[in-house]
Amino acid sequence: MFTGIVEETGTILSFDHGDSAYLLRISASKVLEGIALGDSFAVNGCCLTVSRFELETGELHFDVLEETRRLTSFAELKTGSLVNLERSLSFNGKVGGHFVTGHIDTTGTIEVFEKRGNDYFLQVSIPEAQAKYVIMKGSIALDGISLTVAEVGSHSLAVWLIPTTMDVTNLKGKKAGGLMNLEFDLLGKYVESLTTGQSDALPD
Fold first, then answer.
1. Domains in the chain, start-ordered, CATH in brackets?
2. Per-10-residue mean pLDDT for the chain, 204 residues long?
3. For residue 186, how many other CB atoms are within 10 A of its CB?
4. Structure confidence at residue 200 (pLDDT)
5. Do residues 112 and 177 make contact, with C-beta atoms less than 8 angstroms apart?
6. According to the model, what pLDDT value does residue 204 have?
């Protein structure tokens, strides 16, 4: 479980296909504090498990399934790309964002990304079938960043970004046409399941 408050950006060192999975190597610093094998990290909002780390060189290693690469924006990652990093939630501190699972629902394409005054306006496409999970002033995780929805359309959502968010996250390198990982509010999905009796569970 995560909060959507990005701790730092890491730099992709390599992202290559291995014998059984893709190997993702990331250079980082802050998130290495207290790290252990098997820890969960949100990488651009996607929950991954640490398979190896090197404190001396500041490296994190993750195994990435083909399915994960296919269903997220990871296919666009290349050496030098910046990614948002967050360690899993610790219940002895503050929760500054909203509850984020790290399970990506879909990807969206950046339609508008521009500076307006001192702040930034970001509009991202969403599949029409999933627009029901987005509400005005509700929460959305974009590339693992907890943000408040400012506008909702039938095929898009928009958020406003303060300069601090731009400084701390990988958004500084984003532009129109790029993909972002989207995770909709967990509470909304549970409410839908409870009220409609629908779930994604496999039949017996």
1. 8-87 (2.40.30.20), 106-196 (2.40.30.20)
2. 92 89 94 94 96 95 92 94 93 72 94 94 94 92 95 94 93 94 87 73 49
3. 17
4. 57
5. no
6. 47
